[in-house]
Amino acid sequence: MFALMPVNIRLAVRSLNRNRMRSLLTMLGIIIGVAAVLTMVALGTGARGSVEGEVRSAGTNLIFVRAGNYTRGGESVGIAAGLGAAHTLTYADAQAIAAQVPGITAVSPGLSRRTSVVSGASRAFAPVDGIAAAYAKAYTWNIRPGHMLADGSSEAVIGRTLADNLFGKGFDPTGKPITVRDAAYTIVGVTDDTSDEHNEMLFVPWRKLQAGEGIDYLDYIVIAAEKAGEASRIADDVKTLLRQRHGLASAANGQGYISQQGGGAGRPDDFTVETQAAKALTQGLYTPAAAFALANLPKLDEVTLSEMADTLDRASDTMTALLASIAGVSLIVGGIGIMNIMLVSVTERTREIGLRVATGARSLDVALQFLIEAITLSVVGGVVGLMLGFVTARLIGWALDWPVTVSAQSMALAIGIAAAVGLVFGSYPARRASLLDPIDALRTE
Prior knowledge:
Elements: H1 5-18, H2 20-58, E1 62-67, H3 91-100, E2 104-119, E3 122-131, H4 134-138, E4 142-146, E5 155-158, H5 160-167, E6 177-180, E7 183-192, H6 196-199, E8 202-205, H7 206-213, E9 220-225, H8 231-245, E10 271-275, H9 276-282, H10 287-295, H11 300-348, H12 350-358, H13 363-400, H14 408-434, H15 438-443
Parallel strand pairs: 3-8, 5-7
Antiparallel strand pairs: 1-9, 1-10, 2-3, 2-6, 2-9, 4-7, 5-8, 6-7
């Protein structure tokens, strides 16, 4: 059988080449089906990665370290009031956190001021934050238009709302100069952020803002955890590290999240560490209520991440099932088209089949000839559909600014499905051709 395969392939190609237009129209269903499969898989995989990134950024993966530690009303629950303001948080602390605490993807030093910003004849009183380029990674910013500021430069990134107030709604401010306390910057990007707070702010490199202020300390440090479920563990590691670096006792007065801010041995911390989840949960709560809430949710990050992961998995499964159904229908329609044309081909070539059998061809040889023709139609259509799907996925991703992921596995899967469609839907016409009686076939006009 294998020795005859090259002969049957040549016969199949020759037969298909005789009716090029019909062969092309027959392949069209497979081309569209494979292109749909590849496009949907590419967009679906990219979308899942994008959603996972959004879940991480909008969920519980951030940890905030702030200078100073004043806990109003903490005495009623055994928490030291703390130091209201402190200038002990430094860039060296941020470097130590990045180097010594595992599971971190981004660390950005920060300074926060509220001051006048001027650009030409426009002026506004707005929050100005000194940050590092890693700040955009922590918040998974999309800077449009423009790009993220560079560390140590004189570049600035402006919030969309502040840009509208200074330059007019919808105006592209990139390249425009802006002055903060006599320090000149050039706007290089606009934040695309759902946070109203960020949209009203101006962001500049922290080193230049620090130099302009004549200070050597930080107001805060933003930390992004690689996995949201590890935010609480990272927060605890950061507290321990900073207590060691600041000469404070490593043990905490209490076991709860807020009570740990009190430091140890009667010495309150000179910093505050808070996870994004804890910050959201305790927003607006008085200290005793906040302490009670957090004491009853010791693994808030893990719970939140688990809920988000379950939701994402359910949405992904639903989307996958929907895409698979649509692509499956396309391929079935293409397979039916192949089977229909192959049956027509068997009818048209009945005399040819009779001649082959009469000159010594076996039923298996006839079946292989028509089966290979069907598979050839499917595979060629699959290759064309693969190229079309790749181009289509890229174009859709570019037009919608949507992430696209085309893997070698998805390409191999598309070709494999195309070949399987040809094999399945070509089997019946091939069997019908192999069962033709040679005498009756020769009588056919």
